[in-house]
Amino acid sequence: MQKSKLRIALFSGLYAPFLTGVSVAVHQRVHWLLKQGHEVLLVHPQINDKFPKNVGSRPMAGLDELKPFPNFSSFAFPTQPLIFYKSLPQPLNYRHWSDSKLLSDFQPDIIVVEEAAQMRGLYSGLLQGYGRPVGVKYAKRTHTPIISVFHTDIVAYIKYYFGDIFFSLVRPLIPLLVKQFSDNYDLNVFPSREQLKKYHNLKCQRSEYVPYQGIDCEKFHPRNIIHNPIPNDSRPTLLFVGRITAEKNVTQLIDMYPMIAAKIPDVHLVIIGSGPLDEEIRRRVQKFPSGITFWGESHGTELLGWFARADVFVNPSVTENFCTTTNEALASGTPVVAAIAPSTSEQVFPGLNGLLAEPNSPQDFAQKIITILENPELKSALSEQARPSILGYDWSACMEKFESKLYELVQSSDKQEVTSV
């Protein structure tokens, strides 16, 4: 029997042109749901003149790709720059706009809140943000099912941005905050089993593993070598793609580089991305003018070419929930050296598609990378298995599981329609 199409209200604190893995994933998710015939209201952050000028000019897939669907509608909520990261948005307080009014007008079958903690204000230590759980007031009044989709390890981010002293002071409160926050939603979904386990231990309520975080395995492919951005450069190339921020441990790439170059003199490290540490990275790479390239942002076929061109993709971050760029590299046939962290053990399998290194240890990273580059047979075997190892996370397969979860929640609810809030 054919399932009825759903009316889905999807809130996201991050969306194009704000460049993050969450923004890309949200767009792909909405696009897939629309193609299945579901009606989607996307509530996303507004871009305004308070943000750096380069933010609004990014060539990212966004609303223009969704607007042709007759089953699509959207609302841009008012924003201001995040205190600690001026290129990312924070919603204005609920006194300035109403999630309940939007939901009352749309009357969804189910509500999805992506990065709910960020929208409420946890990224800024509750100094900014919506000020209350997004979508919950309407959901409780109407008995509409509502889920929270976890992308970011917010606890790890708090430690990076507020420091060890502050973190040690608030650490006893974190389980209470996680419990209170998660209890507002009917379900909190995690794309990583290890991350789910961590948040279970932090008293996260109503939580479940749902492998929703996929990639387009047809788009990210070894054949993208035809888009090689440096076709006349045969040096072994190390690649990092991500935001240039403290929690990504980008500076450790530069720390490990001279150790690798001592063994492999012509090695080339390429760092792709942008963020608050741009100036520091530019300053530090000046010591290695011929060996390290800080490329900045990359998009389209150029970025696809970088993933396929690299000899090793390097990810030193220990805060990933389920890293999209790691999977994009693997789908492109590129082996990965990543930090041992909660989710990487579900993506990188030592000796099969890459190697794992001790977190915060440039020395161990350097040794693992050298091991791959100095052993052509090992590198070939890792490259050969990289793509098959990740095909189970193709976007369609992941979204079918996500869609099934939405149907399950809708069918078990006793939603009531309302005419006013």
What is the overall number of helices? 15
Strand order of the largest sheet: 3-2-1-6-7-8-9
Report the principal-axis shape. Answer: globular
Order of helices and strands: EHEHEEEHEHHEHHEHEEHEHEHEHEEHHH
Provide the gyration radius in Å: 21 Å
Helix share, percent: 25-40%
Determine the structural class based on helices, strands and strand pairing.
alpha/beta
- Total strands: the figure is 15
Euclidean distance between termini CA atoms: 35 Å
Low-confidence parts lasting 5 or more residues at pLDDT below 50?
Answer: none
For the sheet with most strands, the description reads: 7 strands, parallel
The percentage of residues in β strands lies in 15-25%
Average predicted confidence as pLDDT: 94
Folded structure, characterized:
By secondary structure, this protein is of the alpha/beta class. Helix content is 37%, strand content 17%. The protein is built from 15 helices and 15 strands. It has helices at 21-35, 63-66, 99-106, 116-120, 136-142, 154-170, 174-182, 193-201, 251-263, 278-285, 300-309, 324-331, 362-373, 376-390, 395-411; strands at residues 7-12, 39-45, 72-77, 79-82, 85-91, 110-114, 146-149, 187-190, 207-209, 237-241, 268-272, 292-296, 312-315, 336-339, 354-357. It has a 7-stranded parallel β-sheet with strand order 3-2-1-6-7-8-9, with helices on both faces. A 6-stranded parallel β-sheet has the order 12-11-10-13-14-15, with helices on both faces. Strands 4-5 form a two-stranded antiparallel sheet. Helix 1 packs across helix 15 and helix 9 (251-263) packs across helix 13. The longest helix has 17 residues, at 154-170.
